[in-house]
Amino acid sequence: MSGPDKPKVIGEEWSDERVKSFLALDPYDSSKNADYNALFKAYQAMRAGDFERFIGFFVEAGRDLNAVNERGETILDLISEHRRSVDYAQALKQAGAKRSATAGN
Questions:
Q1: 3-state class percentages of the chain: helix first, strand second, coil last, to nearest 5
Q2: What Cα–Cα distance (Å) separates residue 69 from each residue in 24, 79, 92?
Q3: pTM to 2 decimal places
């Protein structure tokens, strides 16, 4: 089995198939933004290198890197608050992600 429902294993190599499987994640609550949800779940589950690969697939699929949550925050806003997530934030910025106007760029 591969995909987001597979337990996280440290040091495990992720196939492109497993990384791409996060594109199919839908939020439990249909009022939530599906693009933000997929980014958030990938951020939670992936190492920085796998997350960077995911971002490439995400953009290639025409998804919105600047999707917002119910508080109007982008995933870059959230990740930028975490001091150990510099590599994740850099991958997002390189792909064109922006912080929201309310985030105090």
A1: 50, 0, 50
A2: 18, 13, 16
A3: 0.84
Q: Which residue has the tokens 């697939």?
A: 57
Tokens of 69: 């949550």
Cβ-contact 53, 85 below 8 angstroms: no
Residue 34: burial class (beta carbons within 10 Å; 0-12, 13-18, 19+) = middle
**Torsion of Cα atoms, 37 then 39 then 43 then 46, to 10°:** 110
For residues 16 and 11, give the distance between their C-alpha atoms in angstroms, rounded to a whole number: 16
For residues 41 and 77, the answer to whether their CB atoms sit within 8 Å is no
Domain range annotation of the chain: 17-103
Closest by Cα among 33, 70, 39 to 56: 39
Question: Could you read off the pLDDT of 31-89 as tens digits, one per residue?
Answer: 789 999 999 999 999 999 999 999 999 999 999 999 999 999 999 999 999 989 999 99
